[in-house]
Amino acid sequence: MRLVHTSDWHLGQRLFDLPRDEEHQRFLRFLLTVLQKQQADVLVIAGDVFDSANPPAEAQRAYYNFLADCKKLLPLLTIVVIGGNHDSPARLDAPAELLRAARIHVVGALPTGDDGSGLDLDRLLIPLPRADGQVGGWLVAVPYLRPVDLPSLPAGDLPEATAPALSGELDEATRQAQVEERESAALLQGLHELYARLFAAARLRMQPGQALLAAAHCYLADCKSTPDSERKIQLGNKLPLPVTLFPEDVAYVALGHLHLAQTVAGKQHVRYCGSPIPLSLSEDVYPQQVLMVQLDGEQLTSVEAVPVPRAVAMLRLPAQPLPQVLQALQELPKRGTDPEALRPYLEVNVLVAPGETQLDLRRQVEDALKPAEARLLKLTVVHAEGESGLQAHGLVTPTTSLRELDPEEVLLRCYRRAMGSAEAVLPAELQALFAHLLEEVKGGSSLSGAGDVL
Known about the structure:
Elements: E1 2-6, E2 14-15, E3 18-19, H1 21-37, E4 42-46, H2 57-73, E5 78-82, H3 89-93, H4 96-100, E6 104-107, H5 121-124, E7 125-129, E8 135-142, H6 172-205, E9 211-217, E10 252-256, E11 262-264, E12 267-272, E13 289-296, E14 299-307, E15 314-320, H7 322-330, E16 345-352, H8 361-369, E17 375-383, H9 389-392, H10 407-419, H11 428-442
Parallel strand pairs: 1-4, 4-5, 5-6, 8-9, 9-10, 10-12, 15-16, 16-17
Antiparallel strand pairs: 1-13, 2-3, 7-8, 11-12, 13-14
């Protein structure tokens, strides 16, 4: 059985307000070619199909056109789509029953049974037919799980070591640490119970010679994340999940959420495939790829990375004094006939010495770039050791765009500014209320498009 693993498309994403539609279209055409060339039996999309819960019409059109093209060219292909933390579960699930008739299985949220009392195992446990029509394996499909998806565990059910008494005599930081410890223990226990139940149910459906597989959108321990483009999940990324959620008899685990392609804890069969396009400037060095997974009966035989061609180059000039920066900009390739959407992205860093004045820095940089092919996305002033006169008087300050911060960091900065202390700790009650607010907002809009400067 041949399976292609991809994730984290983030259709509809804008990089510093520039749309990525052409890059995504080129990736989707490339993926369709890979599926045809490899004669794939299964395509797994492991979450974050869209960049926001309310994606633009062009992003939705690209998604559904891709699914339609797949079924036209590969009518026997089985497609599995699970929801990620950026996706709206309801939006993904809305056409699920219609798509299922075409061998497209969509699991946006954890589905419950008709009576609401249990899980809908028919949607979570997906048979994967081979080209000969025989079932080659069973996939346990687990979308991004929100706290409401997990069973409620009373404090009395937790081990004493992980359920300390919340004494009113403790300082706020200690109380908060204890609250987080109890939440972590409850979350982990609920996740272990849920995954164990799903794998046990899958084994009951399997026949000899069929492989057990899994797809999930989560943050596992022993992995490298990308802070500037991945939203924090699972108690603010303070609780990376253990790889032991996936038993040893699972032949392959297709993961989504982390944008850097990587194996987990040295296990070659547990993998993040990474995002197919770089979703931030810091991801320009990441290998963009999809994974070709080969199985023979119950056994994994190979995993091959198929590189995704980079449609738009990313250029980053290291910090150096302005004269050198201007010289480097003048040496960039001149503008050719490429369409606007395919011109390279550019980040410029200018090193400024203490006391140096650069009031017209942006104008000089933009003038030097006029004949160049590259598009300026980000201009950063890097101050050498010591504080410049401009910085001291507030005329030049290092600025941070809201789009580069996650919502929790914005809250923390605002709270510390209001309290007048750089060491102030957010009260646990405020954190909990804010987390609840974020979940509600994600159901209807995206927080990632803010362009103000903090």
